[in-house]
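Give me the fold.
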Amino acid sequence: MPLHPDRLFSPEPTRRSIARRLYEGVRGLPILSPHGHTDPQWYAGDMPFPDPATLFVKPDHYIFRMLYSQGVRLEALGVARLDGAPVETDGRRIWRLFAENYHLFRGTPSRLWLEHSLEMVFGIDERLGAGNADRLYDLISERLGEPDMRPRALYERFDIEAISTTDAATDQLAAHDEIRASGWQGRVLPTYRPDAAVDPERKGFRAEVDKLLGLAGAPTTFAGYLDAHRQRRAYFKARGATATDHGHASARTANLAPAEAEALFRRVLEPDVSAADAELFRAQMLTEMARMSVEDGLVMQIHPGSFRNHNPEVFAAFGPDMGADIPARTDYVHDLKPLLDAFGNDPRLTLILFTLDETSYGRELAPLAGHYPALRLGPPWWFFDSPEGMRRFRELTTETAGFYNTVGFNDDTRAFCSIPARHDMARRVDCAYLAELVADHRLDEDEAQEVAHDLAYGLAKRAYRL
């Protein structure tokens, strides 16, 4: 069915009319995607996407986690196993399975994203199902072979101004260098994600630390380790990076004396590291990363509160990021205090906080961001990247933090064609919320139009220094 032009707007006529006007002012703005997970090799190689399943199903944990919850095996969706055991490789069969279960996505943002992508990218305005799965598969496959469907052409068609990838501290960024050498003008920026070399409880932590030290030619001391991070951050920054990203289990920070930090570093390199030392080391490194951001200007992002890989069977068979990460309670007021005592008042630091714990919006996050100059609130994301989640975020944070202590929207996606769909949804929801403020005579419409523009574009551009 065709997308309704008033989707996500209020059915009440006055508010709907205001939302329409606000949306018309922002719908055509360029897309900034400063926190995402698309593969930089897509843009470097600029090769066609092989089939609809590879484009829409395989990379999207929102899709396969829902299917898995209803008994669909990940192997049947073509998700690779760590042991190399056979999985489904026929894209048509994967697509059929997805189409047969499409009803599972009723009422979810995944459906909104997919139907926006099908209509706006492929011209398909009928609902996917078992009866049309093969025909739509053929139509999409045929289109994917055309030059205007390659990654660089889609980047330009989507009017993306800049997009960031997520890259390990030891990544050589070869794809980014290839993009730069090609002369293509698209801005694909790396983001420094050092978790593998910062979390002592991760498998392969010591090997990653040794690799980091080796790349920098640094000694195995805490000072050498920190210097290695500084060198790698400079390496990323020289290739366009404007931000770092830290996915710790908690928001805990620490600010140890140098001798204590050195002793802790020695302990976490041992194979039998304790959980307490691992958590303290992660806490210390958040403060160290903030110190480095003050020095080099890279924007810092923290997104704690995920109980990662909650399903041990899936983790053992398929590895991380397989849809089994679950939100958990998070303390920001106490956990962030050591870092904020050191740098919270420093205007050189921009620290963007994300959360999977909605209960902290009004109680902790908005009051913190509404006070400390260094803090900004990232948008609702992951489980809350939805019309309802976005609405709750605005209702619970605006009264304390306002709009201008937030950073607009980012899409946090691995599914390339969903990027314009997600930004369109965010723009619609924000315009609907602003329309309510105008209708209630809390904002004039010209003010709401300025805010809508900033939420869609200006805040992200400024916060991420793009």
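The mean pLDDT is 96.
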